[in-house]
Amino acid sequence: MTLQGEYVPSTAQWVRDQVEAFEASDGAEANTLRGSKDPIVVITSVGAKSGHLRKNPVMRVERDGQYVAIASKGGAPDQPEWYYNFLAHPEVELQDGPEKKTYDVRLLSGDERADWWEHAVRTWDTYASYQTKTDREIPVFLLTPQS
User: What is the model's pLDDT at position 2?
Assistant: First the structure.
C-alpha cells in the first residue's frame, strides 16, 4: 500500500536537503549521516495531527529484512516528532537505497526490545551514549515489510 497525503517537508533545512538529495538520486547520494560514513534510510510517515506525509532520515539498522527505528533524538528528554506519527499511523514507507517498501510498525518492549536495542547499539554504538543522556527509555520500533 502506498501512503496517501500531501508531503510537507521538515522545518529543519538539513533534513529537507538530505531527503531531497537521497530521493533524487534513488539513494545513491546523501545516504549517510551528515559528516560520516554511517548509512541511513529515509522513512515516510503520516503526521499524527496533520495527516501530512513526513520524511525523516534515520540510521540504517536492519536484520533479516526487518528494520528498527530508534527514537533517540540524540538523547534529548523528549521524543522525536515521528515517534507520535508511528503510534498514530503504524504504517510507513522505508527507502533503503533505491528500494522502497511499505512496513507495519510496532513499538517493542521487554526482551524483544532488549534484543533489538542490542542489535542497534552493535550497528551504531552512539545509541548507547544517547541513552546515558536521558532519563526516558529510548523507544524502539520494529518495521516489518508488508506482504
Answer: 81
